[in-house]
Amino acid sequence: MLVKIVCDRKLTTDQFHETLIASVKRYFGEVGLTRIDPRIIRFDGNSLTAIVSCDRNGMPEFESSMTLIQSYAESPVSVLVLRVSGTVKGAARRGK
Amino acid sequence: MGTYLDLHVIPRTEDAAACERMASLFAAAHYATVGLTVATGLRSEQVRSVRRVFEDHGVSTVLRVDLKPSSRTELLRLLRRFRNQYDIVAVRCLNQQVAMVSCRDRRVDLVFFDSANSNFRFNHTLARLLHGALEFNLVSDLTQGDDWVFARIRKAIMIAREHQVNVVLSSGAKSYEMVRSPFQISALAITLGLSQETSIRGVSSTPSLIVTGNRKKRAPEYVEEGVQIVLPSRR
């Protein structure tokens, strides 16, 4: 999935990863986290876009978790899914 | 890629920069049309300027009014006053009396329920009466509601599913931070129990049918269902 992070501050890969994991854990728990298996494939801190992946069967849950992200360290953050593709190459191509 | 609509967007009309950013995010999220909820007393120039911001980003707009009547008579009065002025008429149901009339009245396009109100919810009686569509403002309700809001929405979705009512999925975005893509909104609905097909229709064909139907009704040649003026030049 190609996603855009909407926030007024700079985010690092680790901070974005932390935000994603926290959201999945909050809404689906530890078991859900292992099942969904969210990963960051690419992250561009300048354009605040990223390619993220998850287990195919956990896609609605992962998208829901990203939808419900609201903040990181008390500053508002939201995640917008721009494209969904079956392959990383496809998502990267569509992001250009 | 289909045509996606978000029928419940509440822009801050006084903040041009926020509107601009909101519009750019809706365009990036592949929305074709958004339903703008503006205050009924807003001047027409202000409304036009907000619509222009969205249209400059390639997102077409329809005007929507959210009615919040407390009684049946107030609802009927508001419908008489606003039905012809807006493309979409939605009613926030605060009690059973208003909800029953709203569900039955053909002038109402959408009904939605206050997620913060735990005493009154969508129920089987209303599902049987509903002519229009049931709207879920998923982003605003789930990000701003209490811990029980998930359970309440899930219950309403189950009732809607059982009675096969038309469901419209919207964001209810009041700021650019609340803009989400149609994929995310439909995924959220799937997670809460809606079928995949209905959830995709909820962000595409169901709202689209409401908008096209109302545009047709507001056209000058429209008289009533099945009757329209045909001018000789158009033959």
SSE series of chain B: EHEHEHEHEHEHHEHHHEE
CATH architecture of chain B: Alpha-Beta Barrel
Domain tally of chain B: 1
Name of the CATH architecture of chain A: 2-Layer Sandwich
CATH class of chain B: Alpha Beta
Give helix % range of chain A: 40-55%
Walk across the major sheet of chain B and give the strand order: 1-2-3-4-5-6-7
Low-confidence stretches of chain A: none
Biggest β-sheet: strands ordered side by side in the sheet of chain A: 2-3-1-5-4
Q: In whole angstroms, how far apart are the ends of chain A?
A: 13 Å
CATH superfamily of chain A: Ribonuclease P, Pop5 subunit
Query: For the record, what CATH class of chain A applies?
Result: Alpha Beta
Provide the CATH superfamily of chain B.
Metal-dependent hydrolases
Task: Please give the count of helices of chain B.
Answer: 10
Query: Which series of helices and strands of chain A comes N to C?
Result: EHEEHEEH
Query: How many beta-strand elements of chain A?
Result: 5
Query: What percent of residues of chain A are in strands?
Result: 25-35%
Please, what is the average pLDDT of chain A?
Answer: 88
Largest sheet of chain A: 5 strands, antiparallel
